[in-house]
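Teaching note: in complex prediction, the entire set of molecules is handled at once rather than each chain in isolation. The prompt given to students was simply: 'Predict the structure of this complex.' The entities are:
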Amino acid sequence: MTAATTVAERPAVQARAPRPRPSQWALINVAMAILLSATVLFVAFFPLTAAGLPALGPAFNPVTGAWTMAADARDTDRTMHLDGLQEPVAVYLEKNGTAHVKAQTDHDLFLATGYVHARFRLFQMDLMRRQGAGRLSQVVGKAALDSDRFELQLGLLRTAQLEWQHLEASDPSRDALLAYAHGVNDRIEEARRTHELDVMFTLLGYQPEPWTPIDSLLIKGDMTQTLNFTDTPLVMALLMKSLGADLTNEWFPILPPNQQAPYDPGPYPPASVAPIAPMSPPAPLLTGAEPLHDRLAALPAGLIAHGGASNNWAVAGAKSASGGALLAGDPHLHLTLPAIWYQLSIDSPTYHAAGVSIPGTPVVLIGHNEHIAWSLTDAQNQQTFFYVEKEDPAHPNLYFWNGQWREYTSIAYDIPVLGGTTQHLKVRWSVHGPVISERGQTTSVWWAGNLPSQDLGVLLAIDRASNWREFRDALRGWLSPTHNFVYADDRGNIGLISAGYYPQVAKGQPWLPMPGTGEFDVTGTIPFDQIPQDYNPAAGYIWSANQRQVTSDYPYYIGTASNFFDPGYRANEIRRVLSAPGKRSAGDMQALQTDTRDFLAAEIVPVLLQSLAKEKLNAGETAAVAALKSWDFRMETDSVAATIWWYFWGWYMSETFQPWWKSRAVKVDMGEVFDGLGQGLETWTLHNPDNRAFSAPGVGSRTAPDAQRKAFHKLIGDLAKLYGPDPSTWTYGRAHGRMLENLAEVKGLSYGPRADRGDANTPLAAGGYPSTHGPSWRMVVDWGSRTFSGVYPGGQSENPASDWYTNRVDTWWSGDLDPMVSVDEAAGAAGVRTWSLRA
Amino acid sequence: MRLYTAVLLAALVALAGVLLGLWWAPFPVALVLGAVAVRARVALTAGALAGLLAWLLPLAVAHERYGVGPAASSLAAIMGFDRRPEVPVVLTLLVGTLLGLTGAWLGSGARGLTRSPSGDSFRHQ
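The expected output is the structure of the full assembly:
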């Protein structure tokens, strides 16, 4: 069989014989073999970046490739050795994946937490640090270049580096970050060794670099950015320029025109800063807003905060059926797979906390410890200010500030690009912050997220706090993003404090881009004792849902009604339910979290029905009116009226404002200012039906009822086209659904869209279609019975082959909660997996 | 019998390489096989089968130990073939097979260049 055998069977060719020429066929044959081999080897060894194909060999081979996700998905009892541990650590994994870390030293607690996070969420963590550091292009190519440029300009990396430099050696958060990074790196090393890195690393063809404390600080920066870096002043500038100062002032006021429910009604101490001047646009400052606004609008979702939506509230022990304080919290964020949250409990000599953490950070962000529980919502005040720098060709590369020409500080960055050449970026900084636009005008941005802070230390202090005083004192150091921290303790006390920076400017109009010459600079913040807060209010309950926290008497400027603060419908509904007579239970809290009553609909629909009372209606319109008449204003999937209302409000808005937009060529999409316009429309519909807003150019003199009738007729015709002629089939579930999007934007690994209830105005928030934003974690605490429960949509593992990828979705969807058990309860529970971690 | 022996030997060597992390092992193994085998048809068949087996056996073992169904479904979803878990399985086996096949073909073709137009082989002394 061998060549040697073959040769032996044949006469050997004489050594001196002339070398025969290969046949033409042999040449063609070998040429084709070379061609095919080269092709196969090329696609096996090298990624086809343009086609989005990974290198097939390393990606798909069954020993070290993507198939290792099958082994990674298993959950078993294990004993592992981790470098850096001081003592043995036990990790208990509940059947649903919730992790409980029990350590004998604080150092080991954070190290093990880092390991556990990385074990289940390493790719997510890497993606988030890359986003903040402007390094996405390195692994996904030029598609991420705009994001990387913007992030490096904005300065998250610089801020994280400064925060780490400023962290004192004695600060407990320094040890926590170092130990946490050690644990993450233990997992990276283990995953490399066992070829069990997440499948996305394999498919994208890269390996994670070692984790550093700065990476954790970057992830905290990501969250700050997504929650409070806004472009609202640019939007306002564009409105001023195109819609006109008259209508902009009227339709987008500083204080909300509608009735809202601030949780801190005062009285307030007098302000120590000058009052805000009325709006009057300094025209030259508006010219640079459009290119910058367009640039920011083109960035990937999540980099700019576009309003928030979260709920939290607490009920005092005196008003609770169990006798103990109740607390409920559901922060609303982009719903992703894997989720932003990782559920765990931490137990060490100093820390005994349980709740949810953000992978990449070593703290329980929302949860409870032995004595207190807390949750948070975005406070929404203005923390982003744009400054137009004064420049002059006679002073190149300088800007004028406080009477002098000054040099910008420059920082140079290289941005490696997968499949392309490395890009070079020079970022200039003025005293206000980074220059983020040089098109039209040089605009820099003062953003509170760029101030080095020690917010992780604050969160660790909250994890350790045992009463209101310690909780509140910890929050003195919280800068950004401003959050409404709700509180309830085991002694029946409740509180709410909107902690963070409230920047104040010396003068000017901070809701617009301001001159950068010095007179309009941020001069300070509202003193901590004067920020919105309340403790044990007489009503026995307290709540927040991104609404403006204070009344019009509050002596400080904290943001405008449009875009900074929520219109207030969720807050109004929550207050309506909590203020009802009787005592409340944990079950009531859970029910309120999934409440689908639309407060705005309850206000407007009766007015609409009145407007239609004498109108001549066709059969479809008559059926629609009948559905609205019997409606309980709940946005349920089987409700026809919910569909009609959902569309009506949009059609009514369009009917009222679109003619203005058209006639004045407004350069802001109406969707961007939907909430602001809605507050006005609500107010005029209820109290001022003759408002000039209804009489746009080209439509003649009209009133609110006229606009409602016209919108309604058009709406019913459009619904018939969309869903068929029979209104009884127009159920809300056909019109509205929800989706959990894969974090890496892999469509096949997303969940939904699936029909779902709620809308943007209901406590069960579900704005848009498909809704991709909503309750990212629901938690209910009853200190009377010491029961804690919570759930988030998704699962603990980012591995899509794991049972823990989507195992919590159905529980969350149905509005149920899972019990949050203690470490010791988890250790003895059926089906628990135990990891024994050893040095 | 020759074919079976060739397949077995080549597959074992290639498998050993794959298990050591050298996922490309089927190619050089089949290259050698093609270079030494007299009959191209035997070399190509043996090379392809060796490549297939070297990638199939670890996948089968992984399936036995962990179940690769969810992994296959996930990979299919990532590739844009929702609910077609067979696609990544076929692709995986195809890559292994092609590594073996092309290696054997290249080896066999190179060997052909060293043969006379009449088909006689020769050797350099």
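Point out the following to students. Residues 118-125 of chain B have pLDDT under 50 and may be disordered. Chain B has five helices and no strands.
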